[in-house]
Predict the 3D structure of the following.
Amino acid sequence: MLAELSPALIAEVKLAAKLLKTKQRICLLTGAGISAESGIPTFRDKQTGLWENYTAEELATPEAFARDPKLSWSWYQWRRQSVADKKPNPAHHALAQWQYDSQTSAQQLTLITQNVDDLHEQSGSTVTHLHGNLWRNRCNQCGVPHQNHARDSYDNDNTVQFEDTLITCSHCDGYIRPDIVWFGEALPMKEWQIAEDAANNCEVFISIGTSSIVYPAAGLAQLAKQNGAHVIEINPNPTRNTIVDITLAEKAGIILPLLVQEMTQL
Ligand code: APR
């Protein structure tokens, strides 16, 4: 497969593999781009169908939910419906393989994601979610987790319609919302601490499929760089991030399997 890539990109992949092979503490941050090849649109893609007249910012904020909870909730139910049958792609599988291999090597991999899908978990990875989880719900008012996780109602044949009627909390009567970090909300403390520690202490930081414009997650690469880490970016449309040392300008589903394969051959 290496032969299909340009000689310059092949050289960069080999360089990245060589570097990684000599380092022990690796922090990886994934964004919507890693799930794009599984058929989940990224945030910067224009929304389609029913929701094409809305931006994510109009639906995924505390203000949007307060203004029109049914609209926000319906959008998430629609997203659950559209993500329910999606499967991990070669990028997720390569990371899972690398994480598995690291159990018997000296490497310590910390995988952080901004994604709310569960494709990393489906592929067997252990991952820290910075922006919540599409399949969890909680009360918007008292915060209590809601028992009826939407994923439970999905039976793999893609026939289940997610009910878009609002649910209320049995404790306080507040509305149930997805357990997702909306624009303007704080990140979960424990998860952020894991990410910050990993970025602070890593020798290599790899940014995969993220536009690196949504903070604080976008600041993790800078934090790593300030502490002496090398920064690698995997993105077919490289960002204008000036702190990147190695740019692998191709789809994650092509680069990551190659990178992992190269490392095992060294
Ligand atoms: N492989 C790697 N990268 C890809 C691929 C692919 N196959 N396809 C697209 N990309 C890149 C795009 O070039 C883009 O830079 O993925 C990036 C996706 O960017 P965003 O849609 O902005 O996603 P992300 O960075 O994860 O967004 C961050 O913003 O809306 C909020 O909370 C939401 O977690 C999300 C956060």
